[in-house]
Amino acid sequence: MRPERERIFNLPGVVIALIALLLAIHGLRGLLTPEQDLDILQRFAFVPGRFTFAFDPDKVSQAYNELAKANQLRAEIARYFLGDGEVQWWTPLTYAFLHGNWMHVGLNCLWFAAFGAAVARRFTAWRFMLFFVVTAIAGALLHFLTHMTALEPVIGASAVVSGTMAAVTRFAFQPGAPLGETLGFGIRHGETSTYQLKAPPLREVLTDRRAVTFLGIWFLINFIFGAFSVPLGAGDAQIAWEAHIGGFLAGFFLFPWFDPKPAPLRDENAPMAG
After folding, report:
1. Domain boundaries in the chain?
2. I need a labelling partner for 143 at 20 to 30 A (CA). Which of 4, 48, 210, 249 fits?
3. pLDDT band at 91 (very low <50, low <70, confident <90, very high)
């Protein structure tokens, strides 16, 4: 009997589907004219100032006038993305499906495969899809709270990727949990049950040296990214580091909402009911 061959990539179907969707959307945008692509960004990117404009138009107008004095080109871009000023309620989610370039979408898909696969195996498909929605919205929300008058488009799935990284810290550092080479790629036969381990309480995670080290490094990297990032034009618009943190916090603290109760492991020596 021939031994069972292991697949190099053994990703859950929901992760494969979402990655394929992200890549397909970016590929289709490449077939559009620059004008058509800008129209897509205006309709589906998240623009915080549009939401603020709905209840405080004077605040947004003042910020726009100050921008016009400092940089006319950026002011013209901002005016384009303000559009008619109507709130686009779908954009706190749809922005996560758009990316600035192939490197942007490629890196997000790579990290999404690594961390999202572990989370998807634990949550199951429908819970994971809901997790995607919640972390994307959480990223947009924190960015909005820190950039209420900004009219630059925000795009990218980085908030969701950050959310999966945070969720992994809630269960991956306990004894017997999936870590190392089994995180996302090449799960070996018979190891799926490790995803059924009950997640430790939050206080144990925050006192675990490895988990705290991971959290500290993650926040340090994002702080450095925010401190040295440079605003880019509309064509290179990207998600802001505050959105990363919003997605991460949602994935970390809302983890129990999505985590199914672990099924009791069956004792192979126990008698079977007839």
Report:
1. 13-256
2. 210
3. very high
